[in-house]
Amino acid sequence: MDQIKATITGYLQKVSEEITRNLGSNEFDYPEITLERPKREGHGDFSTNLAMQYAGKLGKKPRVLAQEMVDLIPEDPHIEKIEIAGPGFINFFLSSLWIRDMIDEIYDQGNRYGSSDLGGGRAVQVEFVSANPTGPLHVGHGRGAAVGDTVSNILSYMGWKVGREYYINDAGLQMDILGRSTQSRYFELAGKAEECPFPEDGYKGDYIYDLAREVIDRDGMKYLDMDRESSLPEFRSYASEKILTSIRKDLQDFGVPFDNWFSEKSLYEDGLVDQMVNFLKEKDFAYEQDGAVWFRATAFDDEKDRVLIRNNGVPTYFASDVAYHKNKFDRGFSKLIDVWGADHHGYIPRVKAAISSLGHDPEEDFQVLLIQFVNLLREGDQVSMSTRSGQFITLRDVFEEVGVDATRYFFVMRRSDSHLDFDLELAKKESTDNPVYYVQYAHARMCSVLSEAESRGVVFPDIASFRQDLLDSPEEKKLVSRLAVFREELERSSQELAPHILVNYVHDLAGDFHSFYNAKRILGEEKNIMETRLILLKACKTVLGICLDLLRITAPERM
RNA sequence: GUGCCUGUAGCUCAGUGGAUAGAGCGCUGGUCUCCGGAACCAGAGGUCGCGAGUUCGACUCUCGCCAGGCACGCCA
């Protein structure tokens, strides 16, 4: 399919040169030759709008010009016929030779089919989740985790060298508040609440009590008599380490691996923040004013300059973030992808500005994936979520209730920058309305036919038995052409960093298979037909399996 | 007030500047002597928020409105 596409493009290139040479015109811009895949069946396998592009410029009627073009295209066994249609489209109808080529390729490459060298082995870093270790991961983090993980898988399949990283925001004020919250609960459990009031903006979740209890179990009541400021670091580090451990566990159980956990604190300890500030100062991208150090963001399209070091000498979050991104590039990544909650979108211009100042291209070398909020529903009713009160449903709650497969599927089912309705009851349903099962069922069904064939003593046919001319029903044609677009959908998914494209594809593939299955029998048919359909089925199973594997959703053999 | 995102079927959402705008759910009606009915088929359902513009051609690009969301810190 790819080859014949290139061939046709080549023909059109020559046609284009010929047409313009005859007219002696070489003054205008040559339109790009695009071959697209028509949506409607009657419009062939490929279609080009070339005649329409040229018509206006040459002062000819599109359909007349189209005919002239068609006359210039040589005979080719892969092309069955060429038609002119509509306002001037040239439609190519392929002979079925390409189907055989595709099936061959799927068999040869197996579970690597569709992989490519698009990334050229370049190193890309995907930084995602990166939640403060101040509480359990919630549903929004889960969506970021699923999207980041899936994007990483896809990029890796497309020839990128992917580094998955979690940035631990373990420096700054939030850690203090966490420590104070735990400390206060400690005093409260000891019956001395009044001696250590709960911070106004403290973390109110029940898990803080658990942490405080654990401190009591470990260290007893010794902090009651200590100066509160000097015992604070104990609470702070105990709480954050404990929470980070549980975050790691959550992600592990959710099937999301990381190559590296990067501590914000380490940036300070290693002097990278200072180095970065000096670097910017030397380049005159940073300056002092009002006792603070500012980044000259306005020199790079941001609306205002940004503070790096406050006038009290404490660096801002932004400062460590700039140092962090500098460090990422210094580690050899040629491209950075940050996965953020959509509420951080206003932060993008200043980070892009920073990246420019560091000498990188903020459009090419850096990309932000914004993850919109998840609207959690139960039977259509919104599940109330309030972080402030500490009453919220955690990621773990969700995947333990509805299962990892369904949770992951739902999280990547929609464009990541649009709101997501996640109905817990729907995700649990083992029925037709649940898209996860729909896709998994297709896989189980394929396996079932193959094992049934085996138990009936059918020897799985050699690929040589494949007869593409026997696949003539609408259902079979549709299924075959769905297989044919796998590569381009995968490429699009990787280029747009959009897992939902792959999800839509796998859903369509499952649907086409179900239609085929219901319309045509496989086992018990005449030998040629049975063998051809078995080979087709196995090719479908391979592609479906690849999709599920990229989504890290189990491909059950029976369910 | 400024900036970003989103407005597509009753609901949730897809949609590469192309031809008659799609899917799932829901609704109505059908399909199992047969490889798994967690399936399939058919039908009804649309001023693609509104209005201009660019183009041979606009759901798609540009501008202006309208509506919703988010962000506008020496917070993270």
Features:
559 residues, alpha/beta, Gyrase A, domain 2, Isoleucyl-tRNA Synthetase, Domain 1, 4-stranded antiparallel sheet, 20 helices, RNA-binding
Report on this model:
It is a single chain. The protein has helices at 2-22, 50-58, 62-72, 97-109, 139-157, 173-189, 206-219, 228-253, 264-269, 272-282, 317-330, 348-357, 395-402, 404-412, 424-428, 435-455, 474-484, 486-495, 499-519, 527-551; strands spanning 35-36, 46-48, 79-85, 89-94, 123-127, 161-168, 260-263, 286-289, 292-295, 306-309, 335-341, 366-371, 374-378, 381-382, 420-423. The chain is globular and about 90 Å long. The two termini are 35 Å apart. The strands form 4 sheets. It has a 5-stranded parallel beta sheet with strand order 7-6-5-11-12, sandwiched between helices. The protein has a 4-stranded antiparallel beta sheet with strand order 1-2-4-3. Among the domains are: 2-95, Gyrase A, domain 2; 435-551, Isoleucyl-tRNA Synthetase, Domain 1 (Orthogonal Bundle), CATH 1.10.730.10. It is built from 20 helices and 15 strands. The protein has 559 residues and is α/β, with parallel strands linked by helices. Helix 5 links the parallel strand 5 (123-127) and strand 6 (161-168). 50% of the residues lie in helices and 13% in strands. Helix 5 (139-157) crosses helix 14, helix 6 (173-189) packs across helix 7 and helix 18 runs antiparallel to helix 19. It binds one RNA strand of 76 nucleotides through helix 2, strand 10, helix 11, strand 15 and helix 16.
